[in-house]
Every structure is written in C-alpha cells, then in structure tokens.
Amino acid sequence: MTVVFIHLKVTPSKISSALNEIKKIDYIKEAYVVTGDYDIIAKLETPDASLASKIIIEKILKIDGVERSSSSIVLPQTD
User: Fold this and answer.
1) 31-60, pLDDT tens digit by residue?
2) What CATH number does the domain containing 19 carry?
3) Alpha-carbon span 57 to 60, nearest angstrom
4) Comparing C-alpha atoms, which of 4, 7, 9 is closest to residue 28?
C-alpha cells in the first residue's frame, strides 16, 4: 500500500470545483481546503507507487485550476 499526501495550489476561483473533482477520483480517501502555502490537501491510497504517480499526473494535475503540486509519500514505520 502506498499512501501519498498531495498538496495543491489552485486558482482561487476554481478551489471549490477542483475539490469536488478530486473527491471523485478513485483511491482518494480524503480531501480538504486548507490554509497556508497550498489550497487543497488530499490523501491518496493506492496498491503501489506506480499507480499513485499515474493518478497524480494523468488525473489530478489535469483538473482545471490546479497550478502545481507537492507530494509526500508516507514511509513505512520501523520499530
């Protein structure tokens, strides 16, 4: 399982519609409008990193209003 937190900068007038589109994407578990350097944060859970990359590039970054993104992959916990 690959878990990715995706931080998105979105054109202000498109934030609401972009959030709605993101929530429709398979494997998106949560998505919120947030304060700070980015406008939306989304949690993506996929079976592998390859699929996560494909979803980000082919779906999320093509949503109208999305200007840029920064992604953080959750690392496995080691004890």
Assistant:
1) 999 999 999 999 999 999 999 999 999 999
2) 3.30.70.920
3) 6
4) 4
